[in-house]
Amino acid sequence: MQPNNPEARKCIRILKFSSDKKHLYTLFRECRYPKQFLLINDFVKLLVVNKLNKVHQETSIKKFRPYQWTILTLFCLPASFLYESLLTFRNWFFWNFFSDPKKHDERVKMVQKQVIDWNKSGSAKPMCTARSERMNMSPRVASFKKDCHRISINLRDILEVDTQKQTVRVEPLVTMGQITQHLVPMGWALAVMVEMEDLTAGGLVMGVGMATNSHRCGLIQDTVIAYEVILSDGTLVRATAEENKDLFYALPWSHGTLGFLVAIELKIIPVKPYIHLTYIPCYSLDEMCKLTESLAIADDGPKFLEVTIFSKEKSVVMVGEFADVKTKEQKAKINHCNYWFKPWFYKHAESFLKRGKNDEYIPLRHYYHRHTRSIFWELESLVPFGNHPAYRWFLGWLGAPKISFIKLASTPGMRRSTAEMHVIQDIILPIGALKESVLISHELFEVYPLLIYPIRIYDYGKYQGFLRKPENLLPDRNYGMFHDMGVYGIPRAIKKKQVWKAKEAMRKAEKYVRDVKGYQCLYADIFSTREEFEKMFDHTLYKQMRRKYKAEKAFPEVYDKVRPDGKGPQLE
Length: 572
Ligand SMILES: Cc1cc2nc3c(=O)[nH]c(=O)nc-3n(C[C@H](O)[C@H](O)[C@H](O)COP(=O)(O)OP(=O)(O)OC[C@H]3O[C@@H](n4cnc5c(N)ncnc54)[C@H](O)[C@@H]3O)c2cc1C
What we know:
Helix content is 40%, strand content 17%. By secondary structure, it is α+β, with helices and mostly antiparallel strands. The strands form 3 sheets. Strands 12-9-11-10-14-15-13-16 form an 8-stranded antiparallel beta sheet. Strands 3, 4, 5, 6, 7 and 8 form a 6-stranded antiparallel beta sheet that branches. Residues 129, 131, 136-139, 153, 172, 194-196, 199-200, 202-204, 206-210, 255-256, 260-261, 375, 403, 523, 561 line the site of flavin-adenine dinucleotide.
């Protein structure tokens, strides 16, 4: 007998069809439960019932996507805030009570023991760090770790600041936020102070790290004084420009495939409390390219240089210098751009296209982490109204959602679908190709804003490492000028609900990068074949070091770590 109440009848149908999950889902929606309940239901289904058939999964993802901001706001933001608060307290506590270098030595011995045990066990599986893929910043759905023996390297402390030698010695999991929190009040910063707060020193020197002064200082790897590494047999070695020189130059970009990093000594520089930043709007691509190139290579060029491109014609070039703020006029121009109620930094920069050339004084830590709050311009696609004044005033103080929590709140299916509809790439190209690269990005992706950081790539002679000797060396210099182009966002074709083939577009972009002798940053999705990859990156020294330090069986190759592997976003 059927009950009279139509809602109750629907619930009975739900029970009856509960074996058919797709049907169950439709019926749940029919029941007109409050929208938020349905949303949480969608979310739980996506996470827990992830192994449903693909059709169902994709339907769910499409339906869920417009509401993703709710999960981000209700779950990721508070969780990130709590995590950040606990981490700040933990770091303060450890620095004050446990930063004894002897304790570091004990922790390193524990890592060595794991490597020695791996050797004794005769394991066929190569080793990798035990850090979960969810904890790093990379959007890649990496799965190579499943086939590896995981070594726990829980080293996350600042060990020593030596202002005489101008160095800081840190453990690999120390984050950029932790470093500025510690060094800036002392009047110091990393020579290349990478901006996103959650990036780790170890990940940056083993992968890639850059900043707005990279046109003067190079990549973060160019500011490393020493690497302390555990090799495949468990021995601890120190590599510097004099000691174990070949290993020293082979480690950058090696992604942990030559050994495990347990400490790094990095160059630090004295700083002033503010950055005097000048915003220069440009209204044509030629104007921007000419200005950027001349500022990047000039001997008396600015210390900090960055360009945000808002369309094929419009961009804002930002130049900065360290500064003190003394006069009344200077004080009137102070902008604490990272306060929670302030507009996102790139939106603020965009406003100068209308306001014209202008300048302001930004407190140093605010400047260094100006892109953290909006994850460059990525947060807009997740929380479309995140820059609305009401949102900023009421929720802005919670900070940015941590990438790791965003990953936690998404399934591999959702990440795959993101990879099909979204570009996250950093590409390093010769500065002479700036105009062409913007036009090619426009043709393939039409994603704006674009980020441009000019970068020195050094010629290290026979110790060149993974990056080839630059062919565009500047006269009487041992470096060539390049630029990083950051392409983050949803291609215009997708926004207009047209067809956009991610793999095809990326393969064309990668071919262009190889043709102009550029490099693709390896935190992002790579679509090259092994041969193409070896054409982009010089494997000579790397392969010698793999043989010399018996890394071939002990660690996977870089390509095998970064390529899509069938379980990742192998897009057709
Ligand atoms: C949202 C986002 C924002 C970004 N912002 C910036 C930016 O502002 N500036 C910039 O320069 N780059 C930026 N990047 C790219 C970033 O530089 C790379 O992802 C970089 O490699 C560091 O990432 P990570 O700290 O998450 O390290 P991971 O991804 O964890 O590490 C990178 C590699 O190093 C290896 N590794 C790490 N620690 C060790 C160790 N102890 N021993 C051996 N191997 C190790 C890992 O196995 C991995 O292969 C960004 C990336 C994303 C996704």
